[in-house]
Amino acid sequence: MLDSSIQEIKDRLPILELVQDFVQLKKAGTNYKGLCPFHSEKTPSFVVTPAKQMWYCFGCNLGGDIFEFIKLAENVEFGEALKILADRAGVELKKPTPEQVQLRDKKNVLYEINEAAAKYFAKVLWESESAKEALDYLRKRGLSDQTIKNWQLGWAPDDFHYLENFLAKNFSKKDIETAGLIIKKDSENSHFDRFRGRIMFPIVNLHGQAVGFTGRLLHEKPDTGKYVNSPETPIYNKSQVIFGLHQAKNTIRKENRVVLVEGNMDVITAHQAGFTQTVASSGTAFTETQLLILKRFAENLIFAFDSDSAGTTATRRTLELALNLGFNIKVVELREAKDPDELIRRGIGLWQKALDNAVNYVEFFFNRTLQQFDPNDVDGKREIAKQVIPLVARLTDQIVKAHFVRKLATSLNVAESAIWETVNKVQTPKPASSPSSQVLKRKTRLEWLTERVLGLLIGYPKPEILAQFEPADFGPLSKVYLALQQNSKPAQLASTFELLKFGVDTEIEEQALNPEQELKYSAMELNRFLIRQRMEEVANKLQLAENSKNREAVKNLSEEYVSLTKRMSQLG
After folding, report:
1. Among residues 34, 69, 98, which one ends one of the domains?
2. Cβ-Cβ contacts under 8 Å for 181 (sequence gap 6 or more)
3. Is the pTM of this model over 0.85?
4. 3-class SS of residue 482
5. pLDDT (tens digit, 9 = 90+) per residue, 232-258?
């Protein structure tokens, strides 16, 4: 039975352990608190109660059990959340019927195809003579055999149909094409492999499932890109996947810091050297969504992009996004190598020193602009000020801000007052809201009030308050109201009852509230809201009736409006 599987998953997976994969939590009495992953906030309002295996956010009024959390965190439906949690808990779900197998979720098929491809590429790397040069190359780059196996690096033979023929034994070509591994020829009903003659880097999601690949040419060819990435698919969104995060997340959470680099080899070399807090974007510049994912694990970012001008540009672009999200940021100055991979291979101690000496982001760009422009030249002064002052204005620590104002004034040989005047004119962007908060519609005041009143009535029944309302007042929760009216608790509403009561109980405990007073005031406010809403409806209808000269309707609506006004005044 599905119900027994769900309960077994809940029993095996403590909610605290699960949520901590997404949110930094701190103990607060019997609960744990943190910043909500579903909306942007500065003060923690997200609460986990291990004893009840429940979570709730007082900021966006969302809550539930582990299944609801994974649905929202992974943006999946219940069925997929069930599979994710079953896999994690080691619970075998009931085997599907032959008919269900035919209708199995397309995403699951794509996961299977990518996993099969990853294993195939890895097998070829270790067993095929054609891959010998690729394996030698990886070893010469300083990677141990164990590291190559841990990251499941592989080799795509320089053949148009090798992978296609292998995967076609178990999967349809349409699904393999959807997974981005083969390409359909124009005007022909045939395909060819996307990755050929390339070292393969599997890209995995937060749960370690292969969702795509990066392929690197062993020998550069004219008119052929050095790197080829999987296209976006139903399971691979480049803006949401971070290379290395699956392997790095535990260290990142423990250290409360993450090192951002540009390339896959930078990540792998860093991890091999013991710097397992290192990640890279997945074939694109870092996006706001990726940074929000990282914000679940750490508040401190260290940028370690390549030392060329493109790396500096990438640092500036990502920096602006990260500042909007409230990260603490430092930047590694790569003076002795072109990228982290090269510096680590020259000496682990050199990389450790570079990390230890990472500078404030303003310091980094201040030094770079002084190298680019002449501070003694009028145009140079203007350009340096243009580049640096917006960053100085973003600083919240007034002492640090004053330090850089003084430093900039001295370097440009201008009065500090002139720099301060310009800094104070800069309009700093407001913190960005998370994509989750844009996708998840926050509850309206009416929704919040109806849930709160019902939650209080479940925990602290008051028949006289229940009688003030009718089922329609509670919209989609009208069945809960009817159940309370009948003093019953139907099995199909058990989880709804539990969640409504949990949200209220947690708030009362957190804020030491008087539940009876809260019920009284919340019921009063809900009544006011419903009456006000009805008065607006009646007023609109009255206007239409007057325009159409419908005297009877005008009389009835006027009487109702007066009655509503009296009810409102009685509420105080």
Report:
1. 98
2. 113, 114, 117, 163, 164, 167, 193, 194, 195, 213, 230
3. no
4. helix
5. 998 898 888 999 999 998 888 888 899
